């Protein structure tokens, strides 16, 4: 079987290796589809702080169960599945208190441990999540990013009929917008600097789109939601400018959910956070429940992640898929790889 190792930034080596076996409690999966996300591109560019080389990437994927190891129950060969790509310790404080997404010893497949860029992949049975038979492999591969959005929306603790603003219309921003509307928000605004992304967001249910290159967010929020402004702001960029916008534009006493991965140490108006009793909360990854909610929302077509697929590549052309995702951000949302 074919396996793709990133040996250094920007260089992938394909090898023909024996099909892996599986031990007790493990499941062997025939990989069918895998998305490339922003974090993968960071690894491709050599800019990911927590990944070393060589690494086999791939963490948002789907496939078919090929066979199961001793002691595995409830999943059999032929089942269509996706996988929660987190390996956790079950011993640390967060793990013991039902928050294994922030495990002290968290390892993510494709970053700190091997991922799915191979035709067959062995994973622990408890990480395997069955999906409905009629769900496409592409949609099933996008359960993972959808679960990120679902978890973020749960952290927001939306009041019924909430009005929300999402800063950043990348895949996670658009999924967060859709998940928020599916889970209680009545109206959603989304912002970006790329019109193409805003057009997709509008088509997928955003009530208001704002190009912040041309329009100020505060004016747009007041026009759309009136004096009461937004109940929750989701920051889905991870940049100083958008984090500061969230603090500056949030209604007093409202909540900001930081979904974007923040690099460096941004300078922010923490004084306003205090003075306005803003609640700023972080969100990371997901848990099994978020995967199950994500599957339900996709199945009900309340969240439509495959509408964001802008390019498809064969596994053989994986380096081209990375190049497309890296170099043509203006025309891509999700680059998908087929096996
Ligand atoms: Zn990802
Ligand atoms: Zn742990």
Task: Kindly describe this structure.
With 339 residues, this protein is an alpha/beta fold. The protein folds into two domains: 2-141 and 304-338, Quinone Oxidoreductase, Chain A, domain 1 (Alpha-Beta Complex), CATH 3.90.180; 147-282, 3-Layer(aba) Sandwich (Rossmann fold), CATH 3.40.50. It contains eleven helices and 17 strands. The strands form four sheets. Strands 3, 4, 5, 8, 9, 16 and 17 form a seven-stranded mixed sheet that branches. Strands 12-11-10-13-14-15 form a six-stranded parallel sheet, sandwiched between helices. A two-stranded antiparallel ribbon has the order 1-2. The longest helix has 14 residues, at 143-156. The protein is globular. The termini are close together. One zinc ion is lined by residues 37, 39, 59-60, 145.
Q: For this structure, what is the CATH class of the largest domain?
A: Alpha Beta
> In angstroms, what separates the terminal alpha carbons?
11 Å
How many domains, in number, for the residues? 2
Please tell me the overall pLDDT.
97
Shape: globular
CATH architecture of the largest domain: Alpha-Beta Complex
SSE string, helix = H, strand = E?
EEEHEEEHEEEHHEHEHEHEHEHEHEHE
User: What oligomeric state do these chains adopt?
Assistant: single chain
Helix count from the secondary structure assignment: 11
Which bin fits the share of residues in helices? 25-40%
Total DSSP E strands = 17
Strand content: 25-35%
Cofactors, ions and other ligands in the entry:
zinc ion
**Rounded Rg:** 20 Å
